Protein backbone atom coordinates (compact mmCIF):
# COMPACT_ATOMS: atom_id res chain seq x y z
CA UNK A 1 0.00 0.00 0.00
CA UNK A 2 1.52 3.31 -1.13
CA UNK A 3 0.88 6.55 0.76
CA UNK A 4 0.66 9.89 -1.04
CA UNK A 5 0.52 13.29 0.66
CA UNK A 6 -1.04 16.16 -1.31
CA UNK A 7 -0.25 19.63 0.03
CA UNK A 8 -2.26 22.31 -1.72
CA UNK A 9 -3.33 25.91 -1.65
CA UNK A 10 -6.12 27.08 -3.94
CA UNK A 11 -7.67 30.49 -3.39
CA UNK A 12 -10.14 30.37 -6.30
CA UNK A 13 -10.72 26.61 -6.29
CA UNK A 14 -9.16 26.12 -9.73
CA UNK A 15 -6.08 24.28 -8.46
CA UNK A 16 -8.22 22.08 -6.23
CA UNK A 17 -10.33 21.11 -9.26
CA UNK A 18 -7.16 20.13 -11.13
CA UNK A 19 -6.05 18.00 -8.20
CA UNK A 20 -9.51 16.43 -7.91
CA UNK A 21 -9.17 15.15 -11.49
CA UNK A 22 -5.54 14.13 -11.09
CA UNK A 23 -6.11 12.23 -7.85
CA UNK A 24 -9.27 10.40 -8.90
CA UNK A 25 -7.40 7.35 -10.30
CA UNK A 26 -5.26 7.15 -7.15
CA UNK A 27 -8.34 7.26 -4.94
CA UNK A 28 -10.33 4.73 -6.98
CA UNK A 29 -11.28 1.43 -5.36
CA UNK A 30 -8.55 -1.14 -5.74
CA UNK A 31 -5.77 1.36 -6.53
CA UNK A 32 -3.69 0.29 -3.50
CA UNK A 33 -2.90 3.95 -2.80
CA UNK A 34 -3.83 5.97 0.28
CA UNK A 35 -4.15 9.70 -0.47
CA UNK A 36 -4.02 12.33 2.28
CA UNK A 37 -4.89 15.89 1.25
CA UNK A 38 -3.63 18.80 3.32
CA UNK A 39 -5.14 22.18 2.43
CA UNK A 40 -2.91 24.99 3.64
CA UNK A 41 -4.68 27.65 5.68
CA UNK A 42 -2.98 31.06 5.95
CA UNK A 43 -3.73 33.03 9.12
CA UNK A 44 -5.55 35.27 8.46
CA UNK A 45 -7.04 33.84 5.26
CA UNK A 46 -6.61 35.74 2.01
CA UNK A 47 -9.93 37.07 0.67
CA UNK A 48 -11.61 35.99 -2.53
CA UNK A 49 -12.73 37.96 -4.40
CA UNK A 50 -9.99 40.44 -3.53
CA UNK A 51 -10.66 44.05 -2.53
CA UNK A 52 -8.54 46.00 -5.03
CA UNK A 53 -6.06 47.63 -2.65
CA UNK A 54 -5.64 44.49 -0.59
CA UNK A 55 -4.81 42.64 -3.80
CA UNK A 56 -2.16 45.19 -4.72
CA UNK A 57 -0.81 45.22 -1.18
CA UNK A 58 -0.14 41.47 -1.42
CA UNK A 59 2.34 42.10 -4.25
CA UNK A 60 5.50 43.11 -2.31
CA UNK A 61 5.45 40.25 0.20
CA UNK A 62 4.50 37.67 -2.45
CA UNK A 63 7.45 38.64 -4.64
CA UNK A 64 9.80 38.69 -1.65
CA UNK A 65 8.71 35.18 -0.68
CA UNK A 66 7.58 36.38 2.73
CA UNK A 67 5.59 33.49 4.16
CA UNK A 68 2.39 33.99 6.16
CA UNK A 69 1.58 32.16 9.35
CA UNK A 70 -0.18 28.86 8.62
CA UNK A 71 -2.60 26.79 10.66
CA UNK A 72 -0.87 23.64 12.00
CA UNK A 73 -0.89 20.61 9.72
CA UNK A 74 -3.36 17.88 10.56
CA UNK A 75 -2.07 14.90 12.51
CA UNK A 76 -2.83 12.68 9.51
CA UNK A 77 -0.31 14.64 7.42
CA UNK A 78 2.65 14.06 9.74
CA UNK A 79 3.24 10.40 8.82
CA UNK A 80 5.82 8.99 6.43
CA UNK A 81 4.78 9.10 2.77
CA UNK A 82 6.03 7.47 -0.42
CA UNK A 83 5.23 10.47 -2.63
CA UNK A 84 4.48 14.16 -2.05
CA UNK A 85 2.38 16.25 -4.44
CA UNK A 86 2.55 20.03 -4.05
CA UNK A 87 -0.19 22.10 -5.70
CA UNK A 88 0.05 25.88 -5.90
CA UNK A 89 -1.11 28.90 -7.95
CA UNK A 90 1.21 31.69 -9.14
CA UNK A 91 0.94 35.17 -7.62
CA UNK A 92 2.89 38.02 -9.25
CA UNK A 93 5.31 35.59 -10.99
CA UNK A 94 5.94 33.95 -7.60
CA UNK A 95 4.65 30.90 -5.76
CA UNK A 96 1.60 31.63 -3.62
CA UNK A 97 2.87 32.68 -0.16
CA UNK A 98 1.03 29.82 1.53
CA UNK A 99 3.19 27.27 -0.31
CA UNK A 100 6.36 29.18 0.62
CA UNK A 101 5.20 29.07 4.23
CA UNK A 102 4.92 25.29 4.05
CA UNK A 103 8.27 24.81 2.26
CA UNK A 104 10.10 26.99 4.79
CA UNK A 105 8.47 25.51 7.87
CA UNK A 106 10.19 22.87 9.99
CA UNK A 107 7.19 20.57 9.58
CA UNK A 108 7.14 21.00 5.81
CA UNK A 109 10.85 20.37 5.41
CA UNK A 110 10.68 17.24 7.54
CA UNK A 111 7.89 15.86 5.37
CA UNK A 112 9.61 16.42 2.01
CA UNK A 113 13.23 15.70 2.98
CA UNK A 114 14.49 12.78 0.91
CA UNK A 115 11.07 12.25 -0.72
CA UNK A 116 10.06 12.28 -4.39
CA UNK A 117 7.97 15.39 -5.08
CA UNK A 118 5.58 16.19 -7.93
CA UNK A 119 4.67 19.86 -8.32
CA UNK A 120 1.40 21.01 -9.93
CA UNK A 121 0.47 24.56 -10.87
CA UNK A 122 -2.49 26.17 -12.62
CA UNK A 123 -2.25 29.82 -13.59
CA UNK A 124 -2.66 32.52 -16.23
CA UNK A 125 0.32 31.91 -18.54
CA UNK A 126 3.57 32.70 -16.70
CA UNK A 127 4.87 30.16 -14.17
CA UNK A 128 8.58 29.69 -14.97
CA UNK A 129 10.06 32.01 -12.34
CA UNK A 130 7.64 30.77 -9.69
CA UNK A 131 8.67 27.19 -10.38
CA UNK A 132 12.35 28.14 -10.20
CA UNK A 133 11.72 29.46 -6.68
CA UNK A 134 9.92 26.24 -5.71
CA UNK A 135 12.75 24.11 -7.12
CA UNK A 136 15.26 26.07 -5.04
CA UNK A 137 13.24 25.45 -1.87
CA UNK A 138 13.00 21.73 -2.70
CA UNK A 139 16.76 21.49 -3.19
CA UNK A 140 17.43 23.22 0.12
CA UNK A 141 15.06 20.83 1.88
CA UNK A 142 16.72 17.77 0.37
CA UNK A 143 13.65 16.69 -1.62
CA UNK A 144 13.82 14.98 -5.01
CA UNK A 145 11.81 16.90 -7.59
CA UNK A 146 10.71 14.19 -10.01
CA UNK A 147 7.89 15.80 -12.05
CA UNK A 148 6.12 19.07 -12.79
CA UNK A 149 2.63 19.64 -14.23
CA UNK A 150 1.78 23.13 -15.51
CA UNK A 151 -1.73 24.03 -16.73
CA UNK A 152 -2.39 27.52 -18.11
CA UNK A 153 -5.21 29.69 -19.37
CA UNK A 154 -5.13 29.29 -23.15
CA UNK A 155 -6.49 32.77 -23.83
CA UNK A 156 -4.27 35.37 -25.47
CA UNK A 157 -1.98 37.52 -23.33
CA UNK A 158 -4.17 40.56 -24.01
CA UNK A 159 -7.42 38.76 -23.20
CA UNK A 160 -6.14 37.21 -19.97
CA UNK A 161 -4.76 40.59 -18.87
CA UNK A 162 -8.44 41.58 -18.65
CA UNK A 163 -10.22 38.34 -17.71
CA UNK A 164 -7.88 37.23 -14.92
CA UNK A 165 -8.01 40.47 -12.86
CA UNK A 166 -11.79 40.55 -13.37
CA UNK A 167 -12.03 37.05 -11.90
CA UNK A 168 -9.77 37.82 -8.94
CA UNK A 169 -11.41 41.15 -8.08
CA UNK A 170 -15.07 40.26 -8.69
CA UNK A 171 -15.26 36.47 -8.52
CA UNK A 172 -16.78 36.39 -12.03
CA UNK A 173 -14.87 34.19 -14.48
CA UNK A 174 -17.47 33.55 -17.19
CA UNK A 175 -17.20 34.69 -20.80
CA UNK A 176 -18.20 38.31 -21.52
CA UNK A 177 -17.97 40.89 -24.34
CA UNK A 178 -16.36 38.36 -26.67
CA UNK A 179 -13.73 37.31 -24.11
CA UNK A 180 -13.57 33.61 -23.19
CA UNK A 181 -13.94 32.46 -19.61
CA UNK A 182 -10.97 33.06 -17.34
CA UNK A 183 -8.76 30.27 -16.09
CA UNK A 184 -7.71 26.80 -17.16
CA UNK A 185 -10.31 25.23 -19.45
CA UNK A 186 -12.62 22.52 -18.16
CA UNK A 187 -11.19 20.19 -20.81
CA UNK A 188 -7.65 20.67 -19.51
CA UNK A 189 -8.81 20.21 -15.92
CA UNK A 190 -10.57 16.95 -16.81
CA UNK A 191 -7.52 15.91 -18.82
CA UNK A 192 -5.41 16.05 -15.66
CA UNK A 193 -6.73 12.56 -14.98
CA UNK A 194 -3.99 11.18 -17.23
CA UNK A 195 -1.34 12.24 -14.74
CA UNK A 196 -3.09 10.35 -11.97
CA UNK A 197 -3.34 7.24 -14.14
CA UNK A 198 0.39 7.44 -14.88
CA UNK A 199 1.26 7.98 -11.23
CA UNK A 200 -0.89 5.02 -10.22
CA UNK A 201 1.04 2.79 -12.62
CA UNK A 202 4.36 4.25 -11.51
CA UNK A 203 3.61 3.67 -7.83
CA UNK A 204 2.57 0.09 -8.55
CA UNK A 205 5.96 -0.47 -10.21
CA UNK A 206 7.94 1.37 -7.49
CA UNK A 207 9.06 3.94 -10.07
CA UNK A 208 9.00 6.71 -7.46
CA UNK A 209 12.08 5.06 -5.91
CA UNK A 210 14.16 5.15 -9.10
CA UNK A 211 14.78 8.90 -9.24
CA UNK A 212 13.37 9.25 -12.76
CA UNK A 213 10.39 11.30 -13.99
CA UNK A 214 7.09 9.43 -13.90
CA UNK A 215 5.13 11.72 -16.24
CA UNK A 216 7.20 11.97 -19.45
CA UNK A 217 5.36 11.83 -22.75
CA UNK A 218 2.13 13.27 -21.29
CA UNK A 219 2.54 16.95 -22.20
CA UNK A 220 2.84 17.75 -18.53
CA UNK A 221 4.98 20.82 -18.94
CA UNK A 222 4.77 22.85 -22.16
CA UNK A 223 6.79 26.09 -22.22
CA UNK A 224 5.93 29.03 -24.48
CA UNK A 225 9.42 30.28 -25.31
CA UNK A 226 8.01 33.64 -26.39
CA UNK A 227 7.40 34.41 -22.71
CA UNK A 228 10.76 33.39 -21.25
CA UNK A 229 12.48 36.76 -21.66
CA UNK A 230 9.36 38.61 -20.48
CA UNK A 231 9.19 36.51 -17.33
CA UNK A 232 12.84 37.07 -16.48
CA UNK A 233 12.56 40.82 -17.05
CA UNK A 234 9.28 40.99 -15.15
CA UNK A 235 10.71 39.09 -12.20
CA UNK A 236 13.69 41.45 -11.93
CA UNK A 237 11.41 44.49 -12.12
CA UNK A 238 9.02 43.03 -9.53
CA UNK A 239 11.89 42.43 -7.10
CA UNK A 240 13.03 46.05 -7.34
CA UNK A 241 9.54 47.39 -6.73
CA UNK A 242 8.93 44.86 -3.99
CA UNK A 243 11.95 46.15 -2.07
CA UNK A 244 10.86 49.77 -2.54
CA UNK A 245 7.32 49.09 -1.38
CA UNK A 246 8.35 47.03 1.63
CA UNK A 247 10.73 49.81 2.65
CA UNK A 248 7.68 52.12 2.87
CA UNK A 249 6.10 50.08 5.64
CA UNK A 250 3.63 47.28 6.21
CA UNK A 251 0.49 46.76 4.07
CA UNK A 252 -2.08 49.53 4.39
CA UNK A 253 0.27 52.35 5.39
CA UNK A 254 -0.43 55.64 3.54
CA UNK A 255 3.06 56.06 2.04
CA UNK A 256 3.08 52.53 0.75
CA UNK A 257 -0.39 52.88 -0.76
CA UNK A 258 0.66 56.10 -2.53
CA UNK A 259 3.68 54.35 -4.03
CA UNK A 260 1.47 51.41 -5.00
CA UNK A 261 -0.82 53.79 -6.88
CA UNK A 262 2.17 55.26 -8.71
CA UNK A 263 3.48 51.77 -9.51
CA UNK A 264 0.10 50.71 -10.90
CA UNK A 265 0.06 53.69 -13.29
CA UNK A 266 3.68 52.94 -14.25
CA UNK A 267 2.91 49.26 -14.86
CA UNK A 268 -0.14 49.89 -17.03
CA UNK A 269 1.76 52.51 -19.04
CA UNK A 270 4.60 50.02 -19.54
CA UNK A 271 2.23 47.31 -20.71
CA UNK A 272 0.50 49.63 -23.16
CA UNK A 273 3.69 51.12 -24.65
CA UNK A 274 6.81 49.03 -24.09
CA UNK A 275 5.36 45.52 -24.19
CA UNK A 276 3.97 45.74 -27.78
CA UNK A 277 7.31 47.14 -28.99
CA UNK A 278 9.26 44.42 -27.23
CA UNK A 279 6.99 41.75 -28.75
CA UNK A 280 7.70 43.10 -32.22
CA UNK A 281 11.44 43.15 -31.48
CA UNK A 282 11.41 39.58 -30.17
CA UNK A 283 9.48 38.41 -33.22
CA UNK A 284 12.08 40.02 -35.49
CA UNK A 285 14.98 38.44 -33.58
CA UNK A 286 13.35 35.04 -33.15
CA UNK A 287 15.08 33.41 -36.18
CA UNK A 288 18.47 34.45 -34.79
CA UNK A 289 17.69 33.15 -31.29
CA UNK A 290 16.08 29.84 -32.28
CA UNK A 291 18.83 27.63 -30.83
CA UNK A 292 19.13 29.64 -27.62
CA UNK A 293 15.36 29.55 -27.11
CA UNK A 294 15.28 25.79 -27.71
CA UNK A 295 17.89 25.25 -24.99
CA UNK A 296 15.99 27.48 -22.57
CA UNK A 297 12.69 25.77 -23.37
CA UNK A 298 14.20 22.32 -22.77
CA UNK A 299 15.57 23.48 -19.40
CA UNK A 300 12.30 24.91 -18.12
CA UNK A 301 10.31 21.88 -19.30
CA UNK A 302 12.34 19.56 -17.10
CA UNK A 303 11.82 17.11 -15.53
CA UNK A 304 8.57 15.89 -17.13
CA UNK A 305 8.88 17.52 -20.56
CA UNK A 306 6.39 18.41 -23.27
CA UNK A 307 6.48 15.19 -25.27
CA UNK A 308 3.27 13.35 -26.12
CA UNK A 309 4.44 9.80 -26.87
CA UNK A 310 2.58 8.20 -23.95
CA UNK A 311 -0.73 10.04 -24.30
CA UNK A 312 -2.52 7.05 -25.90
CA UNK A 313 -1.62 4.91 -22.86
CA UNK A 314 -3.22 7.18 -20.27
CA UNK A 315 -6.12 8.90 -22.02
CA UNK A 316 -9.09 6.95 -20.69
Helix content: 40-55%
Q: Give the integer mean of the pLDDT values.
A: 93
| Count of alpha and pi helical runs | 12
* Cα shape: globular
Strand content: 5-15%
What structural class do you assign from the helix and strand content?
Answer: alpha/beta
Domains (count)? 2
Please give the oligomerization state of what you see.
single chain
Question: What is the total tally of β strands?
Answer: 9
CATH superfamily of the largest domain: Flavodoxin domain
**Which value, in Å, is the CA radius of gyration?**
20 Å
Sheet with most strands: strand arrangement: 2-1-5-8-9
* Largest β-sheet summary: 5 strands, parallel
**CATH C-level label of the largest domain:** Alpha Beta
Label the CATH architecture of the largest domain. Answer: 3-Layer(aba) Sandwich
Give the helices and strands as they follow along the chain. Answer: EHEEHHEEEEHHEHEHHHHHH
Amino acid sequence: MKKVLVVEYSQTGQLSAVLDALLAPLQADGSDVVVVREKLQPLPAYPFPWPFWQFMDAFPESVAGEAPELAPLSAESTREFDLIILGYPVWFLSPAPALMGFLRSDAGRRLIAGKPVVTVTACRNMWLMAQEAVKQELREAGAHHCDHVALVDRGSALATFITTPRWLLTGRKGAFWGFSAAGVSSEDITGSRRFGLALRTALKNDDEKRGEPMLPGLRACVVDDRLIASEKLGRRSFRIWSRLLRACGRPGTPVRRALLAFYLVFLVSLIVTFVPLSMLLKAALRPLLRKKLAVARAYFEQPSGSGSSRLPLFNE
